[in-house]
Design brief:
Elements: E1 43-46, E2 52-59, E3 62-65, E4 98-99, E5 105-106, E6 126-127, H1 138-158, H2 162-166, H3 171-177, H4 180-190, E7 194-196, E8 200-205, E9 211-213, E10 216-226, E11 230-233, E12 236-239, H5 242-245, E13 246-258, E14 261-268, H6 269-277
Antiparallel strand pairs: 1-2, 2-3, 4-8, 5-6, 7-11, 8-10, 9-10, 10-13, 11-12, 13-14
Amino acid sequence: MGFSIKIRGCQDRSAKHHSRFILWQNRAKSHRAHTAEICYKPLLKVDNEGTSRILMPRERGITVEYALTRRSALGAAGAGAVLFTVASCSNERSDYAGEVKLEKYDNSAGSFEAATRDTPPKNVPKPIKPENADEKSVAGFYASLAYIAAAMQYMFATGDTGPYDDSALTEDEKHYVHNSSNEQILARMREGQNWYENPRVTISLNTAQPAMEGDTYTWEGKFSMEFGNYRVDRGQVNDLTERQKSNTEDMVFKGMYTNERWSVETRSKTVASQSSTATP
C-alpha cells in the first residue's frame, strides 16, 4: 500500500490529540485487550497506590483495556516548567521527525521556581497556542501536537486544564478529564496540595512527514510521560519507583481536518496493528 506524501511550506496548522488521560483514584482493574477496537483512545487510570495504566474506552459495547508498564502518581500534581520549544514555521520545513516542540510560552507570572518536597512549583510557564495550529497543512498538524503535549504537561504541573481544553483534543476525550473524581484531584493541584517533582510530557514523530489522504493525516511516533522522583499528596511525600517515574508508548497520531480545525485521535500502535489484522 503506497502513500502520497506532500511537502508543504511552513504555514501549517493544528491537529487535535485524541488520547485521554484520566486521573482516577479507583483501584485498577485488570481487563484483557480486544483487537476489535479500531480507534484507540487511551485513558490514564491511577489506583490508590500510585500505579497508572492506560485504559481503552468502550467501543462497540466492548470494554477494552491496554495496560502499560507506566507508573505515575495519583492525581495531577507536579513541578517543572515545560521544556518544549517549537520550531519556527517562518521558513519551509520538510523534516519534522523527532520530538515536537512548542515555540511560545507565557512567562508573565514571574520567574519559574521548581517544586521541592515542601513546596509545589511556582510560575509554571503557560503554553501559548501557535497561530498556525488550525491551518490545514503538515506544519499545522505538527503545531497542534506540540500544543497538546505542552498543555498536558502544564495540566500535570498545575492542575489548570485551560490549555488542555483549548487544544485540538476531541470533546469526547476532554470529557473524561472533567469527571468528579478527576476534578477533585485537579483542584488539589491548583490549591498546592498535590504535585509531582517534575512532570514532563513529550510527543515524538518517527518520520519526516505524515501519511496524507485527503483531510486525514497519520503520523507514527511515541508518547512519553515522566514525573520525577517523588509525588506529594496533601503533605505526604511519596518516592516513586523506577516503574512509576516514566513510561513511553508507541502511538499512531491520526489528524482529521474538519470545520477549519484539526481533530486528533491517538491509538496505541500495538492495538492499531492488531485491529488491522483481526479477522472480521
